[in-house]
Design a protein that fits this description.
single chain, mainly beta, 4-stranded antiparallel sheet, 4 strands, globular
Length: 85
């Protein structure tokens, strides 16, 4: 992947590219589909990571947001994940 996939984006920062992001703790337990121009959601409280890394670009993320696939709590992004350890 590109250099941008290695950058860690912290909760509350503006999403630079629509795509699927994963937490940076290395356990692969949390993914988030985020839309360019919106803010990154908080990490799950049990996650030891500090932010989000780009996993895959997504041209459909904005379309999903537009159709009303709103997210987790007060987060501005469409957020899912939290698989059991």
């Amino acid at each position: 992947m590109s250099e941008s996939s290695e950058k860690v984006h912290h909760p509350g920062e503006i999403v630079p590219q629509s795509g699927i992001y994963e937490c940076d703790c290395g356990q692969g337990h949390e993914d988030s589909t985020d839309v360019k121009g919106h803010r990154f959601p908080p990490l799950h409280e049990a996650c030891s990571g500090s932010g989000w890394k780009l996993k895959a670009l997504s041209s459909g993320a904005h379309a999903a947001w537009s159709r009303g696939a709103r997210g987790h709590g007060a987060a501005v992004s469409w957020h899912h994940g939290f698989a059991s350890p």
